[in-house]
């Protein structure tokens, strides 16, 4: 990345432990560690694989790890005290957009493929379908709930939603414990390879170019070690930029296949990491695009709070936008991006969802009031 170098004081901490879950979109962390991209910015990175998102939360809060590849909604759940013990959290940057999906069992997916509506297919089971997501306040729960509601299926009344760590999803579908799941890759590709299910929708069809994983830390970490936090953001921006090249995606797919990272064959990782597996319905997973991916818009965080209110997970009388502004470290990100010569996108951005609703963060209360399907 060619950029003018603006210098900051040396990082207060030089060795950082970063948590991740076995998912293809942990690629920026893998790139940063394997290519030692932190050296340029005065830091070294140690990757710490976690078995679940709950483990990421717990190790972040205990200080066992310094920062993590985390679900956007995990950060907000902890901040609000509805996804675990309340703690002030920070979103340093967005690591990727798109790249998630919903897979249903073969019989259900085949019924939909042959003309049944999602509602009809699920109703044909004669019982509430069991569909897994990865964390109660996480992105996958919110994508799943939004999509089901748009199909006329109430996600809290018509479906049994359970939490399973991403690497367990395909196994649970094979075992018949699930009727479907919403998670990241490569677990949808694994489920299809094992003939247990089919991807019925991609999350980019629900919210095109939606924010997904973020670089997260406790807010006291960012406050105590601001130079370290900026160095970490710059390192991850370098990693995300490296991932823009399709040849590099193939290279990191090989690295991700190792047992220390995902432990999944490259041929199941690479297609959906490089080009959405050839499915025209899906937008490709995005890591950088000149920095358009990475800015932690306050409105993105605010959207998650609207969904928690929609589904009865949050009823506290708080200033939602102020909470989002305190979590998303826009000033710190701007410092790091501008030092690297990376453009910062506009604060407001309108997105049109699968149900035709438009979100730009300008009227959260009005947006929330417009949902007919809610808790």
From TrEMBL:
Subcellular location: Endomembrane system
Keyword presence, Ligase: no
Keyword presence, Lipid metabolism: no
InterPro entries associated with the record: NrtA/CpmA_ABC-bd_dom (IPR044527)
Coiled coil regions, renumbered to chain: none
One annotated Gene Ontology cellular component of this protein: endomembrane system
Keywords, in A-Z order: Cell inner membrane, Cell membrane, Membrane, Signal, Transport
Protein name according to UniProt: ABC-type nitrate/sulfonate/bicarbonate transporter, periplasmic ligand binding protein
Organism: Caballeronia temeraria
Lineage of producing organism: Bacteria, Pseudomonadati, Pseudomonadota, Betaproteobacteria, Burkholderiales
